[in-house]
Amino acid sequence: MRARPVKAATAVTAVRAVKTQHYAILVVDIEKFGSRPNPVQAWLRERLYELLEGALDEAGIDHRAEPRPSDRGDGVFWLLPGSVPKIDLTGRFIDLLQAGLRAHARTSNADGALRLRVALHFGEVAWDGRGWVGEDLNTACRIVDLQPLREALGAGQRSGLALAVSDEWYRGVIRHEYPEADSGAYRAVRFDAKEIQGARVWIRVPGYGTPPGIEGWSADGGADGSGDTPGAGDTPAAGDPPGAAPVREGSGGGGSFAGADVHAQQVFGGDQIVHGSLNFGGVPESRNTEGNR
């Protein structure tokens, strides 16, 4: 008797039904993470979580409920409740995170440097039983890996972070010129990444009137992306190290960020100075996107 052939499952019948929920999506990556030895990587990850949680707490943003942050190795993505005010994430949270990074930079050498690429987006995301899935989450992760954002952080040595927001986030929040949003400091760049073509995102580097390093990346129809000379209010204090951009007047200010512990030679973090026997030799960051992971 001949066996009956098994009919292949169609894409529709094979896909599990998942229910999405609306979230504000925060994605963060550490600059030059892969060039550090394992003990330093572990310490930087610990500091990252301390600074993120501290800034969220000080900004009054609820982050204790599920879901908890999802680790990316060299960074993290965080799904925050859709009810979180986006202006608080855009303004006060970013200012507080910058203040924490600034404090870290003042007591760190190059091996202990912690500088971040930050992306903000929102949309529908679902839990499929193994992990988080959704086009909007994919988009946020594409944004944080954009080369113009890498260029802006690399050129903006006075700042501890470079921020990119989706066009949807910009139109919904930043373009309305809330005082805490610092709307004039954003410039649009073209957003081409894998399945995304011809879109745009908006970049800001705290401490700069316009984001440095993005000349040539401007989006058609957007701001020209040219780098203005920072005003007097953007000038860092004498002796500030790279990453120690000033907190703008009227910002949320900083909180108290605890130090972290690592056994390393002259690697400093927070308010502690730590000594040990390891010799950390950094490798210059490649301009290739994957090489910067």
TrEMBL record:
Organism for this UniProt entry: Streptomyces piniterrae
Region (Disordered): 213-263, 274-293
Protein name: Guanylate cyclase domain-containing protein
Biased composition (Low complexity): 231-246
Top-level taxon of origin: Bacteria
InterPro entries named among the record's database cross-references: Nucleotide_cyclase
